[in-house]
Amino acid sequence: MEEITQRQKLLLLNLIQEYIQKPKPVSSFMLFKKIKGIFSPATIRNEMVCLTKKGYLKKDFFSSGRKPTDKAYRFFVDCVSENLNKKKFSLKGEELNFSFNENIFSLIRETTKRLVFFTNLFTLSFLKEEEIIFKEGWKKISHFPEFKEKNFLEELARFSDDFENLFDKVFEKIEENSFDLKVYIGQENPFGSFRHLAFFSSVFPLPSNKKSFFLLVGPKRINYEKSIFWLKTFRDFFKQKYDQPR
């Protein structure tokens, strides 16, 4: 990835945050107000041009503001993940109104619903051995402005319909004993041609040495920090309770 300066990094991260909050191109003046005048509008415009040439920003029209590209979102996610990894959290199940249920199917279903509640994303989970699938959150994700866009809606519906056929492709990408959290943006994803979607995935350990795969799906313009935080939080709960040394 092409190197950017600290000033460009600051502007890029703030521009992405602004675009995530308000789904419209970000102008140099909007960015000037967001960073409270740290840099002049002229400096911001010049840096936005540089970031566009480096592939981090794009614009739909000559006079419009800028939008982040997939490359910019990847940079943003890497920064967010690095910051979250430095923090230690001590949330407990009861603080989330969540209780562990030794019945595996009830446990997965409840976890899927809780992830939807905290992230507002379409959430899928499944047990490979039993080929049991849970899907929740269609109503929640319909509140995103992107839901009105034909390309996004078609891709999301196609992914939901085809999910059963993606078992093997999904598990080919997962190491046998890895519970790493993965974020795929647009065409990075290993599932197929879904360039308008973002995916958050992880494997959770379960009772009886079983595992369940959890996948959050949403538009690329999304609160990445919140989504990563909640998936990581639930995964860590499960690791603490069920990932015992053998």
Give the tags.
246 residues; alpha+beta; Arc Repressor Mutant, subunit A; Beta-Lactamase; 2 domains; five-stranded antiparallel β-sheet; two-stranded antiparallel sheet; 9 helices; elongated
Please describe what this structure looks like.
The structure is a single chain. This protein has 246 residues and is α+β, with helices and mostly antiparallel strands. It has two domains: 6-68, Winged helix-like DNA-binding domain superfamily/Winged helix DNA-binding domain (Arc Repressor Mutant, subunit A, Orthogonal Bundle); 87-242, GAF domain (Beta-Lactamase, 2-Layer Sandwich), CATH 3.30.450. It is 45% helix and 15% strand. The protein contains nine helices and seven strands; from the N terminus they run αααββααββαααβββα. The chain has helices at 6-21, 28-34, 41-53, 70-86, 104-119, 138-141, 150-162, 167-172, 224-242; strands spanning 57-58, 67-68, 122-127, 132-136, 182-185, 197-205, 211-219. The strands form two sheets. A five-stranded antiparallel β-sheet has the order 4-3-7-6-5. Strands 1-2 form a two-stranded antiparallel ribbon. A hairpin with a 4-residue loop joins β3 (122-127) and β4 (132-136). α1 (6-21) packs across α3 (41-53), α2 crosses α3 (41-53) and α4 (70-86) packs across α9.
